[in-house]
């Protein structure tokens, strides 16, 4: 397990799947705002790749996020689009509704940076998020990510096009353990 100050990132367990499905993936608004594809129902027990992890998929590393104190599941995190030639990847995360606004998101970004830069030896990490996702923007910026551009009308979200912000962090600019 990878440890931050408040949360740990561990492998996906079978028991996590119904909770993540009910609280994150079946919330159509949350799903539509955080995934760039249309929501559709997932059949219980199916091997849908959004929840069931394929360990052989090298460029996509999903984690379940747990509280360090007690081990309760609080969400998901992923390093995706890993490009070992350009040494870059994207990060993504989603917390259960009752677990937001407690500093966990900022901590998850810190742990994903450690995984990307230290464990995987990457040079650049990138985040794309909706321009009105203030919690995500702040969690990224607290870890040193800088806004590199606005992708105008790049996301179709429940009936309208919204802007996305692209943020990047380079290994040499990353300061571990200083989220301030
Ligand atoms: C986005 C998300 C991961 C952020 O994690 P979080 O644990 O809620 O965020 P934190 O508690 O670490 O807060 C980060 C910062 O955002 C601020 N913040 C939190 N919720 C906020 C809100 N609703 N509006 C404005 N600012 C907010 C916090 O005050 C904090 O700022 P500070 O460091 O200056 O105090 C989480 O809210 C979430 O899972 N949302 C739904 C899924 C999603 O949007 N995923 C990202 C898709 S790209």
TrEMBL record:
TM region(s), chain numbering: none
GO function terms (MF aspect): protein N-terminal-serine acetyltransferase activity; protein-N-terminal-alanine acetyltransferase activity
Keywords: Transferase
Endpoints of the signal sequence: none
Residues annotated as domain N-acetyltransferase: 7-168
Family matches, as CDD domains: NAT_SF (cd04301)
One GO CC term, this protein: cytoplasm
Classification via InterPro entries: Acyl_CoA_acyltransferase, GNAT_dom, Ribosomal_N-acetyltransferase
Name assigned to this protein: RimJ/RimL family protein N-acetyltransferase
Organism, scientific name: Thermomonospora cellulosilytica
Taxonomic lineage: Bacteria, Bacillati, Actinomycetota, Actinomycetes, Streptosporangiales
């Amino acid at each position: 397990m990878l440890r931050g100050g408040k949360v740990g990132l561990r492998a996906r367990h079978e028991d996590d799947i119904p909770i993540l499905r009910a609280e994150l993936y079946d919330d159509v608004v949350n799903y539509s705002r955080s995934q760039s594809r249309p929501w559709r129902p997932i059949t219980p027990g199916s091997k849908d790749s959004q929840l069931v992890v394929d360990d052989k998929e090298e460029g996509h590393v999903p984690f379940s996020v747990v509280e360090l104190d007690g081990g309760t599941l609080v969400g998901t995190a992923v390093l995706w689009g890993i490009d070992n030639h350009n040494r870059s990847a994207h990060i993504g995360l989603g917390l259960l509704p009752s677990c937001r606004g407690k500093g966990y998101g900022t901590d998850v970004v810190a742990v994903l940076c450690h995984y990307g830069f230290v464990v995987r030896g990457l040079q650049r990490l990138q985040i794309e998020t909706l321009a009105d996702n203030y919690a995500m923007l702040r969690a990224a910026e607290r870890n040193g990510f800088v806004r590199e551009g606005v992708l105008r009308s790049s996301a179709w979200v429940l009936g309208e096009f919204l802007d996305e912000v692209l943020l990047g962090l380079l290994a040499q600019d990353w300061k571990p353990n200083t989220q301030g």
